[in-house]
Amino acid sequence: AEEAAGALADVALPACADTGTLSLCAPTEGKAGSFTFDRAYGPSVSTADLFADGVAPLVASFSHGFSVCVLAYGQTGSGKTHTMLGDAFSPGVNVLALRDAFAAAAAAEASGQRASSSFSLSMCEVYNEAVFDLLPKGATCAGALREGKGLDVRLGPNGVFVDGQAKHAVTSVEQTLELLALGGRNRSVGGHEMNAHSSRSHLVVTLELVATTSPATTAPSSNAGARRGNAASGGVETTAESFCAKLQLVDLAGSERVGRTEATGDRLKEAQHINKSLSALGDVIAALGAAQTSGKRAPPSAGAGAGAAPVGYDACIAMPHRSSPR
Fold first, then answer.
1. CB 46 within 8 A of CB 69
2. Is pLDDT at 268 greater than 90 in this prediction?
3. CB 258 within 8 A of CB 270
4. How many other CB atoms sit within 10 Å of the CB of residue 134?
5. If we measure between CA atoms, which residue out of 301, 249, 243, 250 comes closest to residue 67?
């Protein structure tokens, strides 16, 4: 979460803490409050530091076969899109995550732990409660993308998916970034009094990994007859396993107060849908957090169990806070 520039004053914020309370005070409105986050980052902390501390472990888990979702949540104009996309001088979370994912796959193949890895990319937006593909096959502009009612979200044997959404095979970070740039140009944006370039939709980038582990040779055991023996080593060769995992990078549209944005017409309609969907998301996160507190485990993803245990996280929700430097 990030605080909008100028929305709150006199912010007491630890530069970086494992756990900490963030105290906010807005004297002009007579409001004050304290909020607890897993970590809190001041304006001087770079996106690279934030990524290394809180997101890189999740990308490592994704590389081991666990599905992961990273969301940027906050008020309009607070810097969510900048945090996720970055710029030429400061790469965003999306770029850093892609670099780590491709590097991990290459390292696993080079070490012999993995026989093959393949990635595919898809990109959609949720605009006014409808889902639209930002990278449809053959499309190069946003002109016809939002015609019709949008795509349907369905539940299949491998989890939730967007029916009819295009997947693009990608083999390098550079190719993936080119597609992200194209999809970004197709996204819905608009201006209001608080943000001249406000995202008017929720953006969901999905990187899917399908991998096959290499057969491993283990020491002989009493039940070795049930598996294939390796005559050269005298050990037992296990069969290769395949898994599929998804890394979803989400740049949410910012919450808005119509009295401040002075939105009218289409901007007002968009704001109503944005706030409604963010409220629903808050309910989902609260329910998941309650289950986590009570000791209940979230159901495993389609790829769970195929690789090593997640690094640093185990079916949990981590909520860091980043204060806007503006």
1. no
2. no
3. no
4. 27
5. 301
Half-sphere exposure of 286 (CA within 13 A, CB side): 6
DSSP alpha helix (H) spans, the chain? 47-50, 56-63, 80-85, 93-110, 173-185, 258-261, 265-293
pTM over 0.70: yes
Query: What digits encode the pLDDT tens for the residues 198-246?
Result: 677 889 999 999 999 887 644 444 444 333 344 344 445 567 788 899 9
Q: Which residues pair with 123 in a beta bridge?
A: 205
Cα separation, 251 vs 263, in Å, equals: 21
For tokens 């007002």, the residue is 268
* pLDDT beyond 90 at 75: no
Residue 58's Cβ-count burial label (10 Å; 0-12, 13-18, 19+) is buried
Inter-residue contact 295 to 14 (CB < 8 Å): no
pLDDT for 30 equals 63
Q: And the tokens for 165?
A: 């959404």
User: Which pLDDT score is estimated for 241?
Assistant: 85
Give me the phi and psi of 141, to 5 degrees please: -145, 170
The residue ranking higher by pLDDT, 277 or 174, is: 174
Predicted pLDDT of residue 159: 77
Question: Phi and psi (nearest 5°) for 300?
Answer: -65, 150
Closest CA to 239 of 247, 230, 252, 231: 230
SS3 45: coil
Q: Collect all residues with Cβ–Cβ distance below 8 Å to 106 and sequence separation of at least 6.
A: 117
Q: Answer whether 219's CB lies under 8 Å from 235's CB.
A: yes
Spatial distance between the Cα atoms of 294 and 41, rounded to a whole number of angstroms: 28
- Confidence class for position 8, pLDDT limits 50, 70, 90: very low
